[in-house]
Fold this protein.
Amino acid sequence: MLDRLRQNYLAGTLSVLGGLLLWELVSRLLIANALFLAAPSQIVHAIYQLTLTGEMGRHIAISSVEFAIGYVIAAVIGIGFGFGMASSARFKQALQPWISGFYATPTIALAPLFILWLGIGIWSKVLVVIFLVLFPVTINTEAGLRTTSERLIEMLRSFGATPRQIFFKVSLPSAVPFILAGLKLGIGRGLIGVVVAELFGSRAGLGRLIAQSADAFNMPELFAGVVVLAVAGIVLTAGFGWIEKRLVPWTKD
Amino acid sequence: MAPKLRISHLGKRFNELHALLDINLDVERGEFISVVGPSGCGKTTFLRIIAGLEPASSGEVLLDGRAVHGPGGDRGFVFQNDSLLPWRTVFANAIIGREVAGQVGAAERQRTMELLKLVGLEGFENYHPRQLSGGMRQRVNLARALAIDPEILLMDEPFSSLDAQTREIMQTELMRIWEEGRKTVLFVTHQIDEAVFLSDRVLVFARRPGRLLESVVIELPRPRALAIKRTAEFVRYVDHIWRLIEDDVRASVIEEKV
């Protein structure tokens, strides 16, 4: 059992290392044109250089702030909306068309508009992140509260529990896995939102780094930005998985 | 002395269908009573009305002389599926009835621990439901109902999801636990031998309309061991009850096929 796990882990590691090696070889031998592709070694070097000059830190800081503010606002509002929709049919009816509409629309296309409204500073990006994160969180929260097991509600009711007790002792805890899933979905969407919004117009941020590197045909720096983003996405999602395992262990086995 | 539980002219209708028709019953303090009958005879509805989980269409339920309207801490319900909260430990699940009533002092915690010990779960207090077997989860289910120290225990086919061996073990365990406190028990089951083994009286229900067909007094000595199931007297009781409901059961089986 453990041996097999170890072997699976090894397979994953080998696959990644093999892919990197192939990439290195292709970019050095086959497409030896620095205008189109950068080798992993060059990317690592670029990340190192950008970090030394402090430029990478600056971009990461700006993007992080945009992401964090937007994400937290969206999470709070989204969970609030979800609660509202689960507890009031009228509220749900009023909100549902907007939620469905915005969730299905690629709201990222509104980024240029937000930049016109709010300027090229961080707040236009924050708004984009909010728009992308809000809806999955709302939808999941509402679904989680709505799908509470009838059996469990009845069990508590048999002891004479009040609706308030039922909410806090059954509905809320059983919705937590859904809320976390919505928040997890929001991470990827939020990161996309930050970067794309920055591409449309910004002074700093990882999207800015990627855009200016592309303008200068500086492939290593472009990929440096992409790699940092990928790492951020992986780390945040993995961190979330860790929190899930601690917070809702009964959903995993 | 007034009966512990008095049910008079109890009826329940779903539209035109009489789920229950004119049920009358007195239950004495400390009596263990089972309800058997074919599917659709209303035995679970009967129990749920006494629990206050469903309203009656007519008649009334008096517990210690007080009419029952809605659920309350004077009745402990043991569910068919364990209905344990997966995020709570065994202990936190068992004490939830007390928690709902706002009584989680040292005495109640102590009492809950004793009950977990009584149902054979000592040492498992901090486990989570997913770590337990089906039989153990039903023990928590039982301890949870006992923890509120109810006037009457209402049990809805609590062993039906267990395998045959575990079920027999749980029957003897239930007898052992019941002998300790002699709670008044209403036990719904579709297993005739289970009903005879456990009960002082077996209420036989018929279907269409759901009604009380016969109340069979079981005069087997207590405490009862599993071996009693092989005695001629025991088998006579089972046969008698089976003959009462046989036609109904056959009819319900055919209906289910259709």
